[in-house]
Each structure stands twice: as C-alpha cells, then as structure tokens.
Amino acid sequence: MKPSGIHNKLSILYFAPCGLAEGVGGGARLRNMLDVLARLETNTQLISYLPGEKFEITHNKISDCLNTTIISTRRSSPKVLKLLALVQMLIYGFKNVKKSDIVFAHAPTIASGFPAFVLAKIFRKPLLIDHMDIKDPDTPKFIHNCVLKNSNIVLTISRYLEEEVKQIGCKNVVYVPVFVDIDVFQKDTLARAEMLEKLGIDDKEIVVGYTGSFAHIEGLPFLLKAFKSLSNKYENIRLVVIGGRNVPDSDDIAGLINELALNDRAILVHPQPHELMPKYLSTFDIACSPKIDCAENRAANPIKIYEYMSMALPTIVSAVGEISNIIENGYDGFLVKPGDVNDLEGKLEYVIQNADSAQEVGRRAREKIIRHYSHQAMLERIENTLKQLSNQTTSTNS
User: With contact defined as beta carbons under 8 Å apart, do 389 and 128 qualify?
Assistant: First the structure.
C-alpha cells in the first residue's frame, strides 16, 4: 500500500540529540522515523548534536528528501563550552525554520526539544515532540515540562509516558510505539552459518542471546546466573552477549562471566553497528531481555525486543514497561518476573526442551510485528499526525 501523500510536500525541521550512526535506542528510533518520513515524501532538515573527538560542523545531503547538519564537541569539554553547540543548533535552525512547515524534536531535552521550542514559538510553527524516555538528567525539569506543554502534538512510545504527559497538561497526545524495518530484521540462514563460524559455535548448539547496554537496569547478571545453572544440565547451549559498558553504572559482565566460570560457554562481542545486528541476531535461537523493575524501564519500550520478535525468535523478557502490554505470554513471547532468576531459568529451559512449539511462538511474534509494529503499520498514524499539524499551519497563515 502506498502512502496517500501529504499535499504540497511538507518541510520538516528535525532536531535530534543523536546521530544516524548510533546503534540502539534513540538512534534506531530516529532512523525508523526518518524512513517513514521519506516514504511520506517530506523534505527533512535534520540538525543533530553529537559528542565527538573535536569541535566540528558537518553538512551532508543523504537523499533528495533528507539533509543533515551535525554539530560535534569534544566529549571532555566543560559544560559551558558544550552550550556553544546549542547556540549553533539555534543558528542553523534559524536558517531553516522559515521554510519549514513543522518543527519536530526527537525528545523534550535541552539538546533537541529546547531549540525546537524556541524556534517554533518565535516563528509560530507547529511543534511536534517524540517523547521516548523519562526526563533526561541534564535537562532542567522546567524546560522538560515547558517543551511538552507547549507542543502541538506529543508522540509517546509507551502508555506510561502517555499518562505522564497528560498529567503535565498536554492534551494532544498520540501513542506511536516502537516500530522496525521487517525487511531488514528477518532471519538469514546464510548469515547464520557465516556468523556461527566466525564466533566458533557449532550449528547444533543452542544459542541464547542478548544485545545492548551493560547498564545495571538491563539486569544482565540475572541472565548469566540463570544460564550458569542451565549450563550444568545442558552441554549444547552457548550464550552470546553483544554490547558493552557504555554508562557509568554498568555491570562488570566480563568479570561475572569469569567469576561464574562461563568463559568456555559465553561469548562477549563488542558493540556492533546497527546495520550488522540482523546478521548477529540470525545466530540466536533464543533472545533475552532480563530488565529490572525501575522507573526507567517502566517508561521504556525497548526497540531491541521488537527486533528480536521481527527475527521470529522465541523472546524471553521481563514483564516491565510497555513490552508487557505487547507480548502475550506463551503465545508470541515469554514474560518473566523482573529480577527472578528461577523464573528466567524456567522459561529458558522450557524453550530449550520444546524447540518446535518455541519456533511457533517466534513465528507468531514476527506476524504481530508485521501487522502492528512495522514501518508500514505506523505509516498512516504518522501521516495523520502530520496532516493535522499541516492543517494548523494553514489555519495560522490564513
């Protein structure tokens, strides 16, 4: 089905505190949103802030409908100097806002929501915010709330955030959950054979996999402990962990693997570019996300779980946050109590012992993603949102 199209080809000024090259979370959401905007044939100017090795500003024409401006500062720079990046975002935004129909911000943060709010207010443009997380610690609460309350429409990835935004005073809230490219995230048997050989895994072994951060809230130690217990019963299982210690409160996963004497059964893979993830996921037979119960995870709707499901993998996840509303336990995935090693071990063992029924669960998971959480599934919802904002622009200018 082709998009119906938006009259006069909308122009969008898009602010984002992340880049297209970032592998997970915000970067993946940004790429997926830009893909849908491209399908809707909008003209998009993306302005991003990225910590880097030096201060620089780069401009790129990605396609006929997407241009980017990336402003980088040194990671070690004082916060005062990093404010220069915010000034630059405002300057480049000022150059583009007059010819834009809509100002769009990737989040209500000081690095994207604030410049979007300022320019939308000055030039009387509709403001659209994509709200994906609890408040950013670097963004003052009054700015966070001000950006949300002054938005014409707020998109939220979870019902938790939807309720939070309504309590702040936002009246026009649209639920736009995570969505994935089903043509990219699908099983590839040739890639599986290639990657198993690369990782030194026999094709008869059962691979339990995890991708993402080693942050404490991800609960990865619970998976390691459950796997340790199962490894004493089953000689044909391997664990593949793809990720790294990329935040201050990360768990020492390498140390825990050594402590649990899992060095010959667990494989650590450094963070990989997002475009390679379908290859790595093709090696998995079971995918896990053992998140703990905390405020961040209650608000979250992790894209990696949708990617697991799109790959038709039997997926075992903690029943916390939006994903507990998405997965139907035992039908298209498996929910476990957060922080419960025994529950996680039990679900893993069930999948190991019941490969055929587990594959059917994976098949139903992919069907659900295709129907409700693919790019095509989100196309109409986002198109209707943009049309609503476009009508507001027309009313303002008339």
Answer: yes
> Distance (Å, rounded) from C-alpha 306 to C-alpha 326?
9
Backbone angles phi, psi at 127, to 5 degrees: -110, 125
- Going along the chain from its start, the domains and CATH numbers come out as 11-179+374-397 (3.40.50.2000), 189-372 (3.40.50.2000)
Q: Which two tokens stand for residue 175?
A: 């639920």
Residue found under tokens 């993402």: 212
- Consecutive 10-residue runs of the chain (398 residues): their mean pLDDT? 58 84 65 94 93 84 94 75 84 96 95 95 97 90 95 96 93 94 96 97 97 96 98 97 87 96 97 94 98 95 96 98 95 98 98 97 98 95 93 59
Q: Where are the alpha helices (DSSP H) in the chain?
A: 26-39, 79-97, 113-123, 141-149, 159-168, 189-199, 220-231, 253-259, 277-281, 295-299, 303-310, 323-326, 341-353, 355-372, 375-397
Distance, CA of 59 to chain centre? 25
Contact 210, 241 (CB under 8 A): yes
Written as six digits, the tokens of 256 are 């825990």
Q: Is the four-CA dihedral 116, 120, 122, 123 of positive or negative sign?
A: positive
- Closest by CA position to 187, among listed 376, 368, 366: 366
Q: Do residues 256 and 267 touch, judged by C-beta distance below 8 A? A: no
